[in-house]
Amino acid sequence: MPDGAQLDMVTFSLNGSNVTVPEGWTIWEAANGRGLVIPHLCHKPAPGYRPDGNCRACMVEVEGERVLVASCIRPVADGMKVVTDSARAEKSRKMVMELLAADQPEKRHDASAHFWDMAALNGVSESRFPKVAPAMVPLLDDSHVAMRVNLDACIHCNLCVRACREVQVNDVIGMAGRGREAEIVFDMNDPMGASSCVACGECVQACPTGALMPATVLDDAQVGDSKDYDREVDSICPYCGVGCQLSFKIKDNKIKYVEGLNGPANENRLCVKGRFGFDYIDHKHRLTKPLIRRDNAPAKGLNVDPSEL
Fold first, then answer.
1. Is the pTM of the predicted complex or chain greater than 0.85?
2. Which of 10, 63, 113, 202 sits most deeply, having the most CB atoms within 10 A of its CB?
3. Are 117 and 147 contacting, i.e. CB atoms less than 8 angstroms apart?
């Protein structure tokens, strides 16, 4: 749209207050712009991600309509009256979270996963529904050197599919099967490490449950905490000249993992080097002293202390 172009605006009622937003905005966007957080799982408010409306965790009530609507995909309209905190809408969202929580593993792969933040927002900490049969629980896929796949925490939100197919345009991740047999697969149901995955890690950054996580965050029991770090350091990826912005998560003065930031060059996205290529910093083979080329230098290229020259 050219600079200075006139925007068409829409006025509607949100929880009893009139709100004016640009035409085409969804109910979720309008609410979020006023600081009202509607629970969401399959929706990721980040560049490149389209709302999908499949998890039904963001349901709200629209006056005059028979059924609840998914706020992440429903555009606002003039005169629309939306209620996000009605008993009907809150009960529906809570039921959705309970059903999804029923299949979550007892030991959370990511103690700080977005899923549990949304569950807490709905007042859900556990589920009254029976868990999935043990024979149906997917096994660990640790075939990839940088990422771990624990699909026992997967809720089929399809965020990883959209991250791979639409955001990074690699088209490695998809859905296979029907009904209870449905699952996330890589290529033709290959192990992640044997697939055509380019290890950009966009799926890891998008996953809301901890089903896909950096290997450095998890212990041998596949348990970790993505928020367990001492500080964040925003920086620019040093590998090439694109200028991708990223955030280093630092624990005990070591890089625990890396996430992309919404910079003009990368819009949260990173390549394999930018996301996973920082283990050299603490590698035992890293040179910490200059190598001096001279006749009496130590054999095999050992590090030389300049004070010895």
1. yes
2. 202
3. no
Q: Residues of 270-296 as b/e, b for ≥16 C-beta within 10 angstroms?
A: bbeebbbbbeeeeeeeeeeeeeeeeee
Residue with tokens 């809408």, as numbered in its chain: 89
Q: Which candidate, 204, 196, 71, 73, places its Cα nearest to that of 148?
A: 204
State how far the Cα of 282 lies from the Cα of 278, in Å rounded to an integer.
8
CB atoms within 10 A of CB 241: 6
β-pairing, 245-251 vs 231-236, is antiparallel
Q: Which tens digit of pLDDT belongs to each residue from 6-48?
A: 789 999 999 999 999 999 999 999 999 888 999 999 999 999 9
What angle do helix axes 87-102 and 114-121 make, rounded to 10 degrees? 140
Q: Which two tokens stand for residue 129?
A: 């529904």
Distance (Å, rounded) from C-alpha 237 to C-alpha 17? 44
Question: What gap in Å lies between CA 181 and CA 187, rounded to an integer?
Answer: 17
